[in-house]
Known about the structure:
alpha/beta, about 35% helix, single chain
Amino acid sequence: MKLGIVTPVLTLLPRAHAQWEESASFDDVVSIVREADRLGYHHCTCSEHVAVPVDIASVRGGRYYDPLATFGALAPRTEGIRFAAHVLVLGYHHPRYGTLDVVSGGRLILGVGVGSLREEFELLDALFEDRGARADDAMRALRAALSRTQPEYHGRYFDFEGFLVEPSAVQPRVPMWVGGRTRRSLRRAIELGDGWAPFGLRTSELRDMLRQVDVPLGFDVLLQSERPLDPVGEPERVRDELEHLASIGATGANVRFVHHSASHYREQLAALLAVAPPN
């Protein structure tokens, strides 16, 4: 399986983050991602919210590092680990991430999603009601534009030609993973993307959804366990959990750990490889 980490500190989800993350520094993030890179992990993630209403932050969390700035800072400190935005909300902007692909040496994975926080759409003066159709067109536009210096695309919402985009991505095809928790997100991923990276779903729900589709050859399915993994304390349970994810169709895992400090997190990174060596 491809093993990626849901990077700690960058996002604080209520009742889901460790206490040490609240006061952690970016140097702690760097130490963790560098260790994951050294050990051969496939990718690390960074999510996106521009601004979360105070009364909603108690449910969704209020800390969200900006993926472009964060990955730009991590790229020169690492060598092989890939950077997966998980996810960029397409309705907020037309993400120009070709520069990140250049400065990271072709290590960008563009994770995208439709978004669901109406208040944030309204704050950014973005249209909420037709966000699904706009996201589909944005993915097609991105596919036409990311790796070309003179892109051309004519769609329902996006229409352009005669413009120069320099630098463009160095990868001929930047992988696009679709996030979400609906059947529509899975269909969108199969139709327009290169992978599906859902969140907030039980494994039984994931199994049922994957059974209802024909997954293309080479398509990535990045799943998460229902509970954080503790390979130091429960290696057998962790092995069983990853084998179960693979049995329902996972080609990789976005891993969340039990961890009580940055050093403990790094210990868990090494312990997991004794259970499930990375691909």
